[in-house]
Amino acid sequence: MAISSFGKILTVLDLFSVSRPIINVDIICEELGLSKPTSYRYLKELVSADLLKRINGTSGDYTLGSKIAVLDYISRTTDPLVQISTPFMRNIVERTELCCLLTYLNDDYCIDIHHEIFKDTELLSYGRGCPRPIYVGSSPKTMVSHLSKQRMQDYYHRYQQELKQSGFAEDEPSFIQRMRKIKKQGFYFSQGEIDPNVSGLAVPVRFSNKEVPLALTLVASKNRFDFLNVEKLIEILQENAALIEQRFMELSEKGEI
């Protein structure tokens, strides 16, 4: 499908990452295959919309603009999924003394849309807005297990090398089989898949029969999980996931969402 002019301008934002918070026209030309005049025009449009800002005192470096922070604030404070889930996630943290994440599956990555931490725990590779690969970890695998078979197959062929290297699946039939097992058991427990010292335990949260569920996940060090009752944690997660789903349905029926 052809990308609209507006869509092409927005691809510039995809060039930003934690490891590259600053871009310039040369980066845009090289990575997006654009001419300098077109790249400068895109920068001008994004700056005028406050999506980018030029860094004073540089020869032409740009960073994310204030509108990004405004949009994140609006999302955090008004997203109905986050608003509904937050009190239940806080309850989970209080009961387990672990960190809790609510994660969304995108086409190329998964992303936490909300997190609640226990005291001053550092989330490292996790936390709101931090993109992660969709072929490792408990959250993405829990969500992927609820895709249609065709979408699962597409997913496998995109990441078959990574899935094989991680030891998760040698071929497509074994991948589909493992995904079906995850869906049937209702949870997935990962150990050291993203960070060698971190484990995650995830269950699905279904807000719609037509959409892929989100993942409700507990995260802690592998050493911490060694001393925990994982079956009890699964029970706590599934209990709160059901309460979140029920609350969402109640508000939907009242027309409050």
Automatic annotation (TrEMBL):
The keyword Transcription regulation belongs to this UniProt entry's keyword annotation: yes
Start and end residues of each HTH iclR-type domain: 3-66
GO MF term list: DNA binding; DNA-binding transcription factor activity
InterPro entries for the chain: GAF-like_dom_sf, HTH_MetabolicPath_Reg, Tscrpt_reg_IclR_C, Tscrpt_reg_IclR_N, WH-like_DNA-bd_sf, WH_DNA-bd_sf
Source taxon at top rank: Bacteria
Residue ranges occupied by any IclR-ED domain in the UniProt entry: 67-250
Keywords from the UniProt entry: DNA-binding, Transcription, Transcription regulation
Xref: Pfam families: IclR_C
Gene3D superfamilies for the chain: 3.30.450.40, Winged helix-like DNA-binding domain superfamily/Winged helix DNA-binding domain
One GO process term, biological-process aspect: negative regulation of DNA-templated transcription
Protein name, as recorded: HTH-type transcriptional repressor AllR
Organism: Acinetobacter lactucae
